[in-house]
Amino acid sequence: MTEIKKYDNDNIFAKIIRGEIPCGKIFEDEHVLAFYDIAPQAPIHILVIPKGAYVDLADFSANASGDEITAFHRAVAQIVKDHDLTAGFRAISNAGGHGGQEVPHYHLHIVGGAPIGAMIP
Ligand code: AMP
């Protein structure tokens, strides 16, 4: 098992999962929560997060259970379907300092609703 990075239980997404602060929830099941980004960068900007305490994509991929990983990706598929993103979308996961990650709880940005432009501007 890969070394588990130290998880900050006070990060803002942990507080959203615990219901301590509100979010614009669009999907929830046993393992996954999804909500609208508070500062959208596209007409549709959704954040999909696991409910488990994972710092980033590498931590989640190495240490989450099969059920958690399956639930996460099934949720992405459901969200894409529900928001009619058949014209396309981009899924982005920032990790660590070089990746520009602001919130240290794994999250996948799903952006769409219009052409998104260059992958790395
Ligand atoms: P990242 O740079 O990948 O860590 O992105 C963090 C994202 O979380 C940013 O796009 C923020 O706009 C978003 N964000 C921060 N706080 C909230 C919040 N309370 N509700 C929804 N989105 C948030």
Structure description:
The protein has 121 residues and is α+β, with helices and mostly antiparallel strands. It is 28% helix and 21% strand. The protein is built from four helices and five strands. The protein is globular and about 35 Å long. Bound molecules: adenosine monophosphate.
Radius of gyration: 14 Å
Give a count of the beta strands, DSSP E runs of length 2 or more: 5
Overall average residue pLDDT: 95
The class by helix and strand makeup works out as: alpha+beta
What key attributes describe this structure?
binds adenosine monophosphate; 4 helices; alpha+beta; 5-stranded antiparallel sheet
What's the SSE blueprint?
Blueprint (H helix, E strand, L loop, with lengths): L11 H6 L7 E4 L3 E5 L7 E7 L6 H7 L2 H17 L6 E4 L3 H4 L8 E5 L9
Antiparallel strand pairs: 1-2, 2-3, 3-5, 4-5
This protein binds adenosine monophosphate (AMP).
The site of adenosine monophosphate has 12 residues, from loops.
